[in-house]
Amino acid sequence: MKAVVFDGTQIEYTDVQLASPGPGEVLVDIAAAGVCHSDLHVVRGEWSVPLPMVMGHEGSGVVASIGAGVTSLAVGDHVVLSWVPYCGKCRYCLLGRPAQCELVATVVSPGGVLFDGTSRISRSGEPVHHYLGVSSFAAQAVVPESGAIKVRSDAPLDLIALVGCAVATGIGAVRNTARFEAGATAAIIGCGGVGLSVVQGARLESASVILAVDVASDKLDLARKLGATETLLVTPGMDVPAEMKKLVPQGIDYVFDAIGKIATTEQAIQALGLGGCAVVVGLPPTGLTARFDPLALAEADQRILGCNYGSTVPQRDIPRLVDELMSGDLDLESMVSARRPLSEARAALADLGSGAALRQLLIP
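The chain above was modelled as a monomer; its predicted structure follows.
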């Protein structure tokens, strides 16, 4: 099959071989794959991953075949791929926290393989690694059964690819991580695919104020379309927390850093109102450290929360999000800046890195 392989120096659209699904695994014909900043972190060398690998961790498709022991899926099912193929048996899964599944940790870090410790992908007889247990930048993918979430068959197969990462992360950050209360105020720093999903999550959870913050005016225009009530265009030298506080004088209850730079994480904390909560959603490069004033945090009764995959429970949350898309409560089409052939993956990543694109869908 055709796939996009990254070897540490170049991104190549090339032929690879894909083995049949093993026990507890399914083969999925990929309908669409979303291009995410997590893919960009890998290309930039900011995250350490096993190489070479087939890229992509956000996708959707149709089940083409199933391995032995698979009971929850059948050939022809429409699925959203989840990079948290949880085991359902470890301590964290039993606590209702599959995003921290101990078995998933073996796939994600150091990663590159499926649960039996081997890859289903090869090239010229040599193994090629999976990315986050998904590898959706390909015509097909073999994933664990719990990594393919069955959804309704009338939903648009290309659009629902976004639910697998950006939308589940952004809306989950509001619903699951922050446990947002109706009537609370929210601010979102960064209006890319995840940030715009946070905006929609705040709208769905009945925020009284939704302040969108970004350096690009077109992204702020889109944020207003998706639910933002206030916007702040960041300019060089601006005291961002101070300007945010001016726009929400009653105090910001929740600030979501959807970028993951050290500066934006620190801004999120500094912008909080009394009793406020900063939620770190965007992921920075490995090894960086942010600073905050612990005395000010304690005196103001504030909190800082980390957010991995929107604290999502995939089997529960992903079908709900697809239902909200179909009911018209969730707008995903506006978040798609381009649909491109899979062969244009390199250009799509370049456009994402330059800020010229929001969510792009690669279509095999």
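The chain has a mean pLDDT of 95.
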